[in-house]
């Protein structure tokens, strides 16, 4: 039933990167974040809702996010997550290293196709 | 700032987290409802898609925690709550473990202190006495002259040797002389023993012969343990010695009061006893072969100091001190190990039973999202907590028990032995209990953590008949317990019977108000035969005149039941090859003083004693052995006691030809200790061979012995101002001491047996109650379907009854198989049918009592309630 959260990411750090990127656009609460990622990826990426919360706590602890009290879309109290400056820097690093990796993988795949 | 907040606002973080998750689920469910689902459908779908909310929350919280420490704390808290919830279970488990550990640690500490490492001396286990055997079964100690000793020390198989020479001497220079045991030891002795002095220093080869080192007990007794005695002078037989040191408590070589340097005299007849330490790795046989030719050479030089044809035999100092007690200690140790085993079995039963009843709880926790590792960890914490608390209580208990045992230990053990709690063994016992706890706590846990959630959800239905595997293991444990209990009860019964036989035996003499004092003549004093007899009789008459003394008699041996030396015997005209008799040299008043009845003939007259007449009395055992149908009076016997020539210390009456005519027969009195049969005994006048010490046996009116001793000392002082008097020994104390060993064994075995019985009964009770609780539903169904109450009782008790009976059978078989070994070491009879019947009856009655409560519980199950209870 429950799987170890470490194996749930597409690759290590992917979920975190998507969360950070989503929150750069605007602060959101948990459910909105899930919906946002699903919508934006055209439902291609089905993130396990459960795995969101341990990841959020990890990022809070690292100081990439902070949270404040807020109101959900349905008008009930919840917690809104927001990117910090440290989070912004971390995201940029992650994206650049991801792009490098992606470019590398693409080249290798292109070679094998030819 | 953030770190600070992180540390102090964890509670807020947790609230944030649950609020977030809560809202997430709510929002999701509402959206699903907007898509057209019913509330229930939406809730179930939403939760399924989200995953295990509790577990996710826990994983999320872990981010903020130091996980291991927090788990341990939580587990400990939980374990504590569990323990408090079941106080009877907790108490039973802890008490069982504590008693098992304490018993094991205590007995092993005794065994270790007495058997394995009793001596503080360097290489003590290699230290030997050298016994010389010829035809005489009582060996001579090796005695060597100065030059021979110097030669002997050089032997390549030896790692050192010492010579010593013990005397009873009079401590003079105070009001009344005091008798002390003084050992003259060769100046190399303290280097040989290698035990540092407690106070001051020991003496060595460079000291003169007028220094003294005190033993600890003498220092305490005579000097009240004062530190300022170093350098002061003590006087023995008017000879001055300077006190240079005090030895530690555990140095008690030969039990001497004090030690002075031995200077070998040039007289070849003045020998000193020699003791040696073998080199590491040298076997006794090899050493004996190496030493024998050397001793043969010494024999040629001084034939008078050796038996005629002898073989040297090495006896380790340990063996000499413990002798037959070794076997008893080993048996006790084995028994107590059984007891610990029983305790562990009991704890196993308790934990297994509880583990079974908690299957549902564990399954539920698992369903709620507890990880397997967390469940196992928590159960492990619970078992370990039990083991540790049990162990801690066990340590406390064994500290107390060791004091108790020290009190009851028979005095025959080496006085060097220091009985203290033995650390390695304590750790071993703790380890055993921890392992039991862990194994028995983990087994159900592991099984529970393997079952999946669906099985777990309907765990209740498993309770129909109980799992067969569990039941079998319970029954095996129960049978094992019964077997061990029977074995221990049988041992206890045998030793108690033996003790009561000894205590109620007809003694043959009257020990009430009977006591003895020993007196030793100053070296070289009263050296003529006539003179010495007159001197001894003068002292006897003077003490006998005390108004409290009814009669006084001189004897060589001490009071019964002490060992009388055995002497080879010849009866002209009869085949007596290899026969021996117990020999006592005594005065005319001996039988009247001890109240040993004269059965036949007469006792010596005073003049016959004074002239060392060759007239003997024998005891009833001797008469029955040699003259069962004839009249022994007037028969002649020959005693070959080997000191016909006499020496510096031993004076022989003129004309002693060792032939004696029997003039009377007296009743039997124990002469080889109470445990042995009365040996055939011969009584001859003490004047025939007279030593430089004697015992005075006194029959008194009763009353305090301290005042009497003082008056005796004063009367002796009037006769000879330098004559010391030894301590008073009462016949009742000697009996007590003789029974000490049997009393010690009997009380320990009895304690073990009753602990074992308690363990077995509580084990049985636990299993029965557990079975009934587990089968409540099944039994309810049976009752509802019309099963009779007797049938229900039979159902729940049958298996346990069978297990107990099987265990009893195994125990009896083991007991019969082992009874030979047991009776060899404890002289108790463990196969006496009446005793065994009693043992079995005791166990079965106890088992029946333990079953009553659970059986009644089973019979009173109300079907409706039983079914509703699930």
Bin the strand percentage of chain A: 5-15%
Strand order of the largest sheet of chain B: 4-5-10-7-9-8
Radius of gyration of chain A: 16 Å
> Which structural class do you get from the secondary structure elements of chain A?
alpha+beta
Largest interface: A-B, 27 and 30 residues
Q: In terms of per-residue confidence, which ranges of chain B show pLDDT below 50 for 5 or more consecutive residues?
A: 1-6, 459-466
As for the number of domains of chain B, it is: 5
Strand segment tally of chain A? 3
What is the average of the pLDDT values of chain B?
83
Distance between the termini of chain A: 42 Å
CATH domain fold name of chain A: Arc Repressor Mutant, subunit A
Helix fraction of chain B by DSSP (H/I, runs of at least 4): 40-55%
CATH class group of chain A: Mainly Alpha
Provide keyphrases for this structure.
heterodimer; A: 114 residues; alpha+beta; Arc Repressor Mutant, subunit A; 3-stranded antiparallel sheet; 4 helices; globular; disordered N terminus; B: 870 residues; 5 domains; 6-stranded mixed barrel; 27 helices; 16% strand; elongated
In words, what does this structure look like?
The complex is a heterodimer of chains A (114) and B (870). Helix content of chain A is 58%, strand content 14%. Chain A is α+β, with helices and mostly antiparallel strands and 114 residues long. In chain A, strands 1-3-2 form a 3-stranded antiparallel sheet. Mean pLDDT of chain A is 80; it is low at 1-9. In chain B, a hairpin with a 6-residue loop joins strand 1 (127-133) and strand 2. In chain B, the strands form 4 sheets. Chain B has a 6-stranded mixed beta barrel. A 6-stranded mixed beta barrel of chain B has the order 15-16-22-18-21-19. By secondary structure, chain B is an alpha+beta fold. Mean pLDDT of chain B is 83; it is low at 1-6 and 459-466. Chain B has 5 domains: 2-65; 75-119 and 325-451, no CATH class; 135-309, no CATH class; 465-505 and 734-870, no CATH class; 514-702, no CATH class.
């Amino acid at each position: 039933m429950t799987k170890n959260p470490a194996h749930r990411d597409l690759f290590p750090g992917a979920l975190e990167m998507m969360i950070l990127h989503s929150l750069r656009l605007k602060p959101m609460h948990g459910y909105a974040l899930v919906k946002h990622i699903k919508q934006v990826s055209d439902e291609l990426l089905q993130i396990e809702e459960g795995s969101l919360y341990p990841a959020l706590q990890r990022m809070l602890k690292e100081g990439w996010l902070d949270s404040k009290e807020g109101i959900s879309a349905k008008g009930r109290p919840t917690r809104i997550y927001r990117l910090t400056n440290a989070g912004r820097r971390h995201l940029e690093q992650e994206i650049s290293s991801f792009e490098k990796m992606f470019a590398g993988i693409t080249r290798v795949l292109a070679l094998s196709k030819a | 700032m953030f770190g600070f907040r992180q540390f102090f606002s964890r509670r807020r973080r947790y609230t944030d987290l649950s609020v977030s998750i809560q809202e997430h689920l709510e929002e999701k469910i509402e959206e699903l409802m907007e898509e057209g689902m019913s509330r229930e459908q939406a809730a179930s779908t939403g939760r399924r898609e989200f995953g295990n909310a509790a577990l996710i929350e826990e994983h999320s919280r872990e981010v903020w925690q130091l996980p291991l420490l927090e788990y341990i704390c939580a587990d400990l808290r939980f374990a504590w709550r569990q323990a408090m919830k079941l106080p009877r279970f907790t108490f039973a488990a802890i008490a069982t473990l504590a008693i098992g550990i304490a018993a094991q640690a205590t007995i092993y500490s005794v065994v270790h202190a007495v058997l394995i490492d009793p001596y503080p001396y360097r290489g003590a286990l290699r230290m030997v006495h050298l016994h010389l055997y010829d035809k005489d079964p009582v060996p001579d100690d090796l005695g060597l002259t100065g030059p021979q000793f110097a030669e002997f020390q050089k032997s390549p198989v030896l790692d050192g040797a010492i010579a010593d020479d013990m005397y009873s001497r009079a401590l003079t220079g105070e009001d009344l002389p005091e008798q002390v045991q003084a050992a003259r030891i060769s100046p190399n002795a303290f280097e040989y023993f290698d035990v540092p002095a407690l106070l001051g220093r020991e003496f060595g080869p460079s000291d003169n012969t007028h220094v003294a080192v005190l033993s600890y007990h003498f220092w305490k007794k005579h000097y009240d343990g004062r530190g300022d005695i170093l350098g002061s002078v003590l006087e023995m037989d008017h000879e001055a010695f300077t006190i240079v040191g005090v030895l530690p408590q555990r140095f008690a070589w030969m039990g001497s009061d004090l030690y002075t340097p031995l200077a070998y005299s040039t007289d070849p007849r003045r020998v000193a006893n020699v003791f040696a330490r073998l080199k590491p790795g040298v076997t006794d046989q090899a050493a004996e072969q190496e030493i024998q030719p050397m001793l043969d050479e010494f024999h040629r030089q001084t034939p008078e100091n050796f038996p005629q044809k002898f073989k040297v035999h090495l006896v380790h100092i340990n063996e000499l001190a413990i002798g037959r007690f070794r076997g008893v200690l080993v048996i006790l140790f084995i028994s107590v190990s059984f007891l610990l085993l029983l305790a562990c079995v009991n704890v196993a039963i308790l934990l297994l039973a509880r583990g079974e009843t908690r299957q549902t709880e564990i399954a539920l926790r698992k369903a709620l999202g507890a990880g397997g590792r967390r469940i196992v960890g928590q159960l492990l914490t619970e078992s370990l907590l039990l083991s540790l608390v049990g162990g801690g209580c066990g340590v406390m208990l064994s500290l107390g028990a060791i004091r108790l045992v020290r009190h009851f230990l028979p005095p025959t053990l080496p006085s060097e032995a220091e009985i203290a709690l033995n650390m390695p063994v304590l750790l071993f016992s703790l380890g055993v209990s921890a392992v039991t706890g862990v194994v028995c706590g983990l087994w159900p846990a592991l099984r529970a953590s393997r079952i999946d959630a669906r099985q777990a959800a309907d765990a209740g239905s498993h309770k129909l008949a109980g799992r067969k595997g569990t039941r079998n293991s319970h029954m095996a444990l129960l049978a094992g317990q019964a077997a061990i209990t029977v074995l221990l009860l049988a041992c206890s019964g045998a030793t108690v019977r033996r003790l009561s036989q000894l205590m109620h035996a007809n003694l043959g003499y009257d020990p009430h108000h009977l006591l003895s004092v020993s007196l030793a003549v100053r070296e070289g004093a009263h050296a003529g035969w006539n003179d010495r007899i007159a001197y001894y009789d003068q002292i006897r008459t003077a003490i006998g005149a005390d108004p409290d003394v009814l009669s006084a008699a001189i004897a060589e041996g001490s009071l019964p039941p002490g060992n009388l030396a055995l002497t080879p015997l010849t009866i002209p005209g009869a085949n007596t090859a290899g026969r021996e008799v117990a020999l006592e040299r005594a005065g005319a008043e001996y039988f009247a003083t001890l109240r040993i009845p004269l059965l036949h003939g007469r006792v010596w007259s005073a003049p016959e004693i004074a002239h060392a007449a060759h007239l003997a009395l024998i005891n009833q055992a001797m008469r029955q052995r040699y003259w069962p149908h004839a009249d022994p009076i007037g028969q002649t016997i020959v005693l070959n006691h080997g000191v016909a020539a006499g020496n510096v210390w031993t004076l022989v009456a003129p004309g002693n030809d060792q032939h004696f005519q029997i003039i009377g027969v007296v009743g039997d009195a124990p002469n080889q200790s109470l445990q042995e049969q009365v040996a055939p005994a011969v009584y001859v006048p003490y004047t025939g061979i007279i030593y430089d010490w004697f015992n005075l046996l006194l029959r008194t009116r009763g009353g305090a012995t301290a005042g009497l001793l003082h008056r005796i000392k004063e009367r002796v002082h009037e006769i000879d101002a330098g004559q010391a008097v030894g301590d008073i020994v009462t016949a009742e104390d000697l009996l007590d001491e003789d029974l000490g060993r049997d009393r010690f064994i009997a009380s320990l075995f009895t304690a073990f047996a009753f602990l074992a019985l308690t363990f077995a009964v509580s084990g049985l009770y636990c299993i029965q109650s557990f079975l009934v609780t587990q089968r409540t539903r099944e039994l309810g169904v049976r009752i509802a379907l019309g099963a009779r109450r007797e049938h229900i009782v039979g159902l729940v008790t049958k298996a346990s009854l069978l297990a107990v009976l099987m265990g009893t059978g195994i125990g009896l078989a083991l007991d019969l198989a082992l009874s030979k070994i047991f009776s060899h070491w404890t002289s108790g009879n463990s196969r006496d049918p009446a005793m065994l019947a009693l043992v079995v009856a005791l166990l079965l009655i106890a088992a029946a009592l333990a079953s009553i409560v659970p059986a009644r519980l089973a019979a009173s199950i109300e079907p409706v309630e039983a079914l509703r209870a699930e």
